Amino acid sequence: MILKRIVFAALAAFALWPACAIASQNVVHLEDEAHRTALSGMGGDRMDVITDPGRYGDWDELGVRRISWKERSDQPCHWAIRVVNLNDEGRDLYPSEGCSGAQSEKEVGFGADTYVSGLRVCLNRDHDRVKGLHLRGRKVNADGTIQNVSSDPHVERTNCRDWMDWVECPNGQIATGLIVARESGAEPRSARGIGLICRRVSTRAAEASHRFIGETSITDLAGIGTGKTMDMLPGGDRNHAMDTIEWSEKGDEPCRVVVKGATLGPVIDRGSDTYDLCGGKTRDGSRRQAGPSDPNKYPITGLKVCLHNGRLKGVAIEVSAPFAQGGPQRMRSEGNLTATQPNCREGDFGWTEVVRCPADQLAVGLRVAVREDMGGFDISGMRLLCRRFE
């Protein structure tokens, strides 16, 4: 028997849980209304906007730190920005737009806590290609106040001829995106002018934190129990809400289970735990997974299993919205909450009754029942490990 535990952490953005206050602090964010500056340089037949929607859920916390561009055949056609989270210097993204095959990159920008707030471009002799960039910036403090900085970095190419007028974000705002005015026609389409998308810096109360408290309770068994069990805990502790159960087979034997889950927030730490009786080898196409489409929001609170000849052939879970108004609300409608192998059949052992955590608890782990069968091991049942939360 091979026992393998995998624990990983992936820092994501703020949790999607509604507020349930224990402790709170202010965080810096950007207000919804956006302001577009005029263009520095010349206008164009095409206007491209470069910004980032916040793939970690932090679209309202991303400011422009640096701007870069590349050329193809002397034409400034590929533009990119580095956006950085105002509350976490370690979270940055690099959205870009433009032609393929561009080279000879130029970049200009600021260091920690400082974001672009103004710019002007340098054009070539014919005033139809951007050949230089000069920036102004504002520092964003932890309390949400901002101040202009004295440094004004710039970069230019050899055929930079004329510096154009400055364009700047209004007072109290920083850049969150870039506007690129281009000539019409086929690629590479040179940039002729540049503008900024700006938003006002503000503060708000941070998402409240949540935690598990009290002792662990254990549900009744769904399936067939034996003397051999294994406790599985996402993240390796009892502080992760379990939201996904995955399993695989070797031959016809269910022999590998993975559980996944996350802390309650506001910062999400995802983790997993693996119990492997397959010797690392599973049947191709046998992996099944039961979990909500939005796992960070809906943890498991109930489950049932399907058995065939005493072997696990299906898992169906119930999940809850734990911080819904009026208390936890069970969610049972998603099709991906049930996953089965082909030989899970009603009437042939079939589905067990649902076992559920108490109404004020969430699943933090899984107790897997294992039976020895013809020299091998089968997974034959499951119990939920549950804890209260606040």
Structural overview:
Mean pLDDT is 83; it is low at 1-24. A hairpin with a 6-residue loop joins strand 10 and strand 11. The strands form 6 sheets. Strands 10, 11, 12, 13, 14 and 15 form a 6-stranded antiparallel beta sheet that branches. The chain folds into 2 domains: 11-22 and 209-389, Vitelline membrane outer layer protein I (VOMI) (Vitelline Membrane Outer Layer Protein I, subunit A, Aligned Prism), CATH 2.100.10; 26-205, Jacalin-like lectin domain (Vitelline Membrane Outer Layer Protein I, subunit A). It has strands spanning 11-14, 26-36, 40-41, 46-50, 62-72, 75-85, 88-93, 96-98, 103-109, 114-123, 130-140, 146-148, 154-156, 162-163, 167-168, 173-182, 191-205, 212-218, 222-223, 228-232, 241-250, 253-262, 267-276, 288-290, 300-308, 311-321, 329-331, 338-340, 350-351, 355-356, 361-373, 376-389. The protein has no helices and 32 strands. By secondary structure, it is an all-beta fold.
Give the overall silhouette. elongated
Could you describe the largest sheet, including whether it forms a barrel? 6 strands, antiparallel
Q: What value does the average pLDDT take?
A: 83
CATH topology of the largest domain: Vitelline Membrane Outer Layer Protein I, subunit A
What structural class do the secondary elements suggest?
mainly beta
Beta-strand segment tally: 32
* Helix percent band: under 10%
Q: How much β-strand is present in the residues?
A: over 45%
Q: Which CATH C-level class of the largest domain is it?
A: Mainly Beta
- Rg: 28 Å
Please report the number of helical segments: 0
| Annotated CATH architecture of the largest domain | Aligned Prism
How far apart lie the N and C ends?
38 Å
Integer count of domains = 2
CATH superfamily of the largest domain: Vitelline membrane outer layer protein I (VOMI)
Uncertain spans, ≥5 residues at pLDDT below 50?
A: 1-24
